[in-house]
Amino acid sequence: MTRLHVEATAGPVLVQDLGRPGLAHLGVAPSGALDRGALALANRLVGNPDGAAGLEVVLGGLRFAVDSDTWFAVTGAWGPVRVGGHDVGPYRAARVRAGEVVELGTAQRGLRFLVAIRGGIDEPPVLGSRSRDTLSGIGPDPVAAGRVLAVGAEPAASVPLLDDDAAWPPPAGAVTLGLLPGPRADWVTDAALAALHESPWRVSASADRVGARLEGTALERRVRRELVSEPTVPGAIQVTGAGVPTVLLADRPVTGGYPVVAIVEPGSLDRLAQVRPGQEVRFRHA
């Protein structure tokens, strides 16, 4: 059985698969990779099922070795990837020999690398998933230097051929996201809703897997009181009493007391996962 030996990390490194949906009635968020499409693609590149567990690496700095020959792929953020000191292309399967070191440099575009190993990371599942939920602490511990991760059995599918057209870096400029109406849109003024759609926003440095706070125009609340907690969904935009919008993400609380005035469409959430702090975000009607 292949094992992955972690030699160094810089930013957060988490084990993530496609999450544990359907458990909100137990107070459990879905969690899972924030850029779900990138994880699925990385897995397909090495012949894994889309939902196999991989590593979500913020900004890079991961270094690891394997103790037997295998394949890996890196998608999501765009930056240098090296095997045994030699550069390999992103968004493609690469062979790594036993004892060779794989290094992820600093992301040049995007925020989160997704790393798939052929066979998948084989940490013990919790409630049907190997994903780490950073809010509740459910799932495998964050990955640190010195950690040894088991890799699952060789999948039945072979490593497919894929041409270079599959590789595209996340945008460096403004990112446009689709926006759906929220159930409490009437709790802010018409001018606030217009500003949400028409004004530029920037992702705060405090953004994490729970939510991405947006910096820009304060949104005026028409209704000042807070709600009895209501269910939340991925992409829900809550507005605080001070008019600050926050987009709730995979590790969010399953209920919340701030009004949800709009919802980022599901198809845009992968793009939001790659937006760096300070990068511009704009919304369009979905």
What secondary-structure arrangement, pairings included, does this model have?
Blueprint lengths: L2 E6 L4 E4 L19 H10 L8 E5 L4 E4 L3 E9 L2 E3 L2 E3 L4 E4 L4 E4 L4 E9 L30 E3 L24 E7 L8 H9 L2 E3 L7 E5 L14 E2 L4 E4 L5 E4 L6 E2 L3 E5 L4 H5 L6 E6 L1
Parallel strand pairs: 12-20
Antiparallel strand pairs: 1-4, 1-11, 2-3, 3-10, 4-9, 5-8, 5-10, 6-7, 6-9, 12-19, 13-14, 13-20, 14-17, 15-18, 16-17, 16-19
Account of the 3D structure:
- There is one protein chain.
- This protein has 286 residues and is mainly β.
- 8% of the residues lie in helices and 32% in strands.
- The protein has helices at residues 36-45, 190-198, 269-273, and strands at 3-8, 13-16, 54-58, 63-66, 70-78, 81-83, 86-88, 93-96, 101-104, 109-117, 148-150, 175-181, 201-203, 211-215, 230-231, 236-239, 245-248, 255-256, 260-264, 280-285.
- A 7-stranded mixed β-barrel has the order 12-19-16-17-14-13-20. Strands 7-6-9-4-1-11 form a 6-stranded antiparallel sheet, with no helix packed on it.
- Strand 13 and strand 14 form a beta hairpin.
- 45% of the residues are buried.
Q: Please summarize the sheet with the most strands.
A: 7 strands, mixed, barrel
Number of strands: 20
Distance between the termini: 46 Å
Work out the helicity level.
under 10%
Shape: elongated
Order of helices and strands: EEHEEEEEEEEEEHEEEEEEEHE
Describe the strand arrangement of the main beta sheet, using strand numbers: 12-19-16-17-14-13-20
Tell me the β content: 25-35%
pLDDT < 50 stretches: none
